[in-house]
Amino acid sequence: MPLALAEFNSASAEEVRPVLSACLAVPRWVDALLAARPYADFAALSTTADQVTPLRRNEIRAAIAAHPRIGEQPASKGSDADWSRSEQSGVDNPDEFAAANAAYEERFGHVFLVCASGRSGEELLANLRSRLGNDPETELDVAGAELAKIARLRLAKAITA
Description:
By secondary structure, the protein is mostly helical. It has helices at 5-10, 13-23, 27-35, 42-51, 57-64, 79-87, 94-108, 121-131, 136-158, and strands spanning 3-4, 159-160. 29% of the residues are buried.
């Protein structure tokens, strides 16, 4: 259930930490957003969220672990699982994704991460395949940028003006 910005500003850190962690499982990001409260408007909150990125490589690796494979539905329950299901709703070719995911994970050692919201399964699969050509460090940076995009979308769902 989304929080109004006023509610977010006045709630205890313990109450809103899980909401922010569902947007992006990076403690430094969550702590920075909590520390900068209160926010005059959602734009100020969004600006603070953007200022904490780019993410560090160790943060990217840890946050990737909280995401399901693209094309697979998360087994967990909660806002982040619901958001993931919604974001991946365009994935309509799970068998192709299973094979591409296996190749990606073999190459990089982690799940493929992309901001899937509003994109077709074909577009996502093409993105995955094109990223297989990246070196591991470049790919980790790309995944970090995708995490930041996902976080912005989720933050807008979690905190309303």
